[in-house]
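Quick one: structure for this chain?
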Amino acid sequence: MSQTALALDRLPHSVVAQLISPLVEMGAYEALWAGGTSFKKLADLFRAHPGALPSEVLGNPSAAQEMAQKAVELFQQRGVKRFGVRIHQAGEYPAKLRDARFPVELLYFQGWWNLTESPSVAVVGTRKPSPNGIRRAQRLVRELVDDDRTVVSGLAAGIDTVAHATALQAKGRTIAVIGTPLGWVYPAENRELQERIAREFLVVSQVPVCIYSTRGPKWNRLFFPERNLTMSALTDATVIVEAGETSGTLIQARAALHQGRKLFVLDSCFERGLKWPERFLEQGAVRVKGYEDMRAALPTPAVA
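Got it. Here's what it folds into:
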């Protein structure tokens, strides 16, 4: 650990937050990715430097400044005029994110950050849902909204899109945890939905913009499963509406159990001859018919 980190340890948390430059830390985070690292390697690096900020681990102020400027320019080119960052060791970084196997040191966001502290449930599933799967997701989301819970998903095609859109239609809150940098949209048809969520609620990304902008889809697609770990850590529970044996949704299922979060699997998933529902049931998942079966296992929303 650096002398700076040791000195910061002796200061009140509120004072530390005032001394840290979000721009410099963002640039350092981007610079640490410049060589093509991974979330696992970065997590191991920061575990070896407990209490250190990205700029301290990088140890190159000029590189941090250069990458910060490049990141800002890239965001502006994509139409992102306003955004924020949350940094581990500073400010309003959620402590619950440290439950992830490879916790991220910095998050980008657009919108209302305080939504991360609201009672929330991740609603996830296949990109190609059946008509019944769509109806089940819509009903579940409406019930979550009625019970004053924030609906979280990943803005992918299929169940994710249904979850976000239904939450908005029901006048509820929603958070999108995306697998691209801010300003990039996947799938492209979700641009309007993503922009609305960023404007009215919250979009969160852990994806470094500088390296993402230089790599192709084959490399960049690896960010999508990583965001599932963050989505699970941010929420009280994950519920799987519908998913096949090879669905990326199962990455989040494993993460939820590892992080000590509730994992709910809709009853209909057990009726399709799939192996994964029983496997996760044996590991601690809960089989549910609908929201009422989930409600007793969730934290009670605070009364406004």
